[in-house]
Amino acid sequence: MKVEEVPNPAAGCTDLVARDLVAAAFEVIRDRYVLARHQIAAAVLDADGRVHLGLHVDAMVGRAAVCAEAGALSAARLVTSAGLLAVAAVRFPKPTEPPLARIVPPCGLCRELLLDHAPHIRVVLPGPVPALTPLDDLLPHKYVGTKWPAPPTHL
Predict the structure, then answer these.
(1) Is 4 in contact with 10 (CB distance < 8 Å)?
(2) Per residue in 49-100, pLDDT tens?
(3) Burial state string for 94-128 with b = 16 or more CB within 10 A and e = fewer than 16
(4) Helix or strand or coil: residue 37?
(5) CATH number for the domain including 112?
(6) Using an 8 Å Cβ cutoff, are 93 and 100 in contact?
(7) How many structural domains comprise the chain?
């Protein structure tokens, strides 16, 4: 499979924010994909209109791996305290798979992490027409400990 043969999944997005985030994540993973090292990239949009990128970094010890969304969140927080509005992640296919990159939702750990730092963030979900959905819809019973003040609950 040649990298240039893999179509950009942003083409299926009708929402312009979703399209831009998916396109940005796809470009990163298309350019940085390494089998068993980097297979997902993420893009986070902040309230100032900037996009911050992250790359999945795998590890021999699974827990030491870093998800792309966590990398994008960290990249955003390095340069701004602006609110984070939306996130998208794209997985690049392995050489043994059909040549289709795909939008992927955040894993459970990243859902918790993103909601800790951006309680109103929306996520691009895959589907016939990829769409932005409030992340808290995917994690309605988020863990709330005593480390930080509890976020307001939805009524």
Answers:
(1) no
(2) 999 999 999 998 878 999 999 999 999 999 999 999 999 999 999 999 999 9
(3) eeeeeeebbbbbbeeebbebbbbebeebbbbbbee
(4) coil
(5) 3.40.140.10
(6) yes
(7) 1
